[in-house]
Amino acid sequence: MHKIKSVRTIYQTDVFPNMLVTKVDFLDRLTGKAIVVDKEEKIVLVGSSLNHVYTLPGGGIEKGETIEAGILREMVEEIGCNIKIDYMLGVIDDYRNRDKTHCINHCAVAKIIGEKGIPKLTEEEKKNGLQVKWFKLEEALEILQKEKASVLRGEINFYNTAYNIIRDNIFLSDYSSRNVKN
Q1: Angle at alpha carbon of residue 32, lines to 29 and 34, rounded to 5°
Q2: Residue 26: CATH number of its domain
Q3: Cβ density class 169-181: b for 16+ within 10 Å, e for less
Q4: How many C-alpha atoms does 112 have within 13 Å on its Cβ side?
Q5: Would you say residue 143 lies in a domain?
Q6: pLDDT in tens, 115-167
Q7: Domain annotation covers residue 182
């Protein structure tokens, strides 16, 4: 497998500038995210009907699972779609002091295979009102940029959600800059 480009490292001070930073021993957690494009060139975001915050689909890579296999599984579970990975966009490391977690976030760019299906949500995801919505690239970028501004103003205090917003904004912005049509 080829080396995947490191996009950025995110620290607690990037997400919560006023939060006290303490020295911790971090445990690694692999995650897989995807920028999934449908036949109409729309991008999927997942969000909660409880807080109306949207991020890229994906989640934790299970023990013994390759990153690509984990991303494929997560897309079936979260958005109900089989996908074909076109390429790996990059990796963002983030250090979550409160949770003592070093997330190693891999992001793929993918297209849907076949038709859109129904997500296979966990009971917790159902309880949290997980929603799947498709947006034009510009709309998805605007949503994530507004959410990032809300995080930086201290208006979104959900710890992991705030990290995910910052991370996904970077991934989607990087994707957009690579796919600008002249």
Answers
A1: 155
A2: 3.90.79.10
A3: bbbbebbeeeeee
A4: 17
A5: yes
A6: 888 888 788 878 888 899 999 999 999 999 999 999 999 998 889 999 999 99
A7: no
- 181 CB contacts (<8 Å, ≥6 apart)? none
Give the tokens for residue 130.
């997980």
Domain count, the chain: 1
Tokens, residue 140: 């998805």
Beta-strand ranges (E) seen in 4-148 are 6-10, 27-37, 42-48, 54-55, 58-60, 82-96, 101-113, 130-136
Q: In sequence order, what are the residues at sequence separation of 6 or more whose Cβ sits closer than 8 angstroms to the Cβ of residue 34? A: 56, 57, 58, 71, 74, 75, 83, 85, 107, 108, 109, 110
Provide φ and ψ at 114, rounded to 5°: 75, -150
Ranges of H-type helices in the chain: 12-15, 67-79, 123-127, 137-152, 159-178
- Residue 167 identity: R
Which domain range does residue 61 map to?
Answer: 6-176
Is the distance from CB of 46 to CB of 82 less than 8 angstroms? no
Task: Please state at what angle helix 159-178 crosses helix 137-152, rounded to 10 degrees.
Answer: 140
- The tens digit of pLDDT for each residue in 87-112 reads 999 999 999 999 999 999 999 999 99
